[in-house]
Design brief:
Blueprint: H1 6-22, E1 30-32, E2 36-45, E3 48-59, H2 68-81, E4 85-90, E5 97-101, E6 107-112, E7 118-123, E8 127-128
Antiparallel strand pairs: 1-3, 2-3, 3-7, 3-8, 4-5, 5-6, 6-7
Length: about 170
């Protein structure tokens, strides 16, 4: 395990999620979800307490049922282009998900929840426990307060459309 701090690992998780969101066109409306830290049992790094951190992004754009597979495909292709390893795919009809891992051991997922809401999560391996600041990059949507996550409510001419996404034109 690396000797970087949990803050540095969380910054890496934020950068991966931001890179994933930037790979999606047209852009999605999204907000940061709650960050969660957890201990690593009795595991220590050079005598220091170790912990893990999860960062979460909640997509507020309405993604129609017929466009959900397209969005999942965009994210999966981006992760593969970045050298991330796809570790699992849940092809559940209503709540599909894709799981991946970076070469450094950071685990990511994209999942579809109720009403087609997309969630991105990045979880660090165990690193030296430290204070962790909130994500530095603001989301593109309006942050919410409280434990209840609002349903997706931002319409997109592309992602909310009820027709299948057009196929990309072949390049000569």
């Amino acid at each position: 395990m690396s000797k970087i701090s949990l803050q540095e690992a969380s910054d890496d998780a934020d950068a991966i999620m931001l890179g994933t969101l930037r790979a999606v066109r047209p852009e999605l409306n999204w907000v940061h979800g709650p960050s969660l830290d957890s201990g690593c049992g009795s595991y220590k790094i050079d005598g220091n307490v170790a912990a893990s951190m999860s960062r979460k992004v909640i997509v507020m754009t309405i993604v129609s049922e017929v466009r959900r597979g397209s969005l999942l495909g965009v994210i999966e292709r981006h992760w593969k282009q970045q050298g991330y390893i796809i570790t699992g795919v849940d092809s559940h009809e209503k709540t599909p998900a894709i799981f991946a891992r970076t070469p450094e051991g950071l685990r990511m997922s994209v999942s579809v929840g109720k009403k087609g809401q997309f969630f991105l999560r990045a979880t660090t391996p165990c690193f030296i426990q430290s204070e962790v600041s909130p994500p530095r990059t603001p989301g593109t949507g309006t942050p919410f307060e409280g434990p209840v996550i609002p349903d997706p409510h931002v319409h997109s001419a592309f992602w909310s459309a009820t027709t299948p996404a057009p196929l990309a034109s072949p390049t000569p």
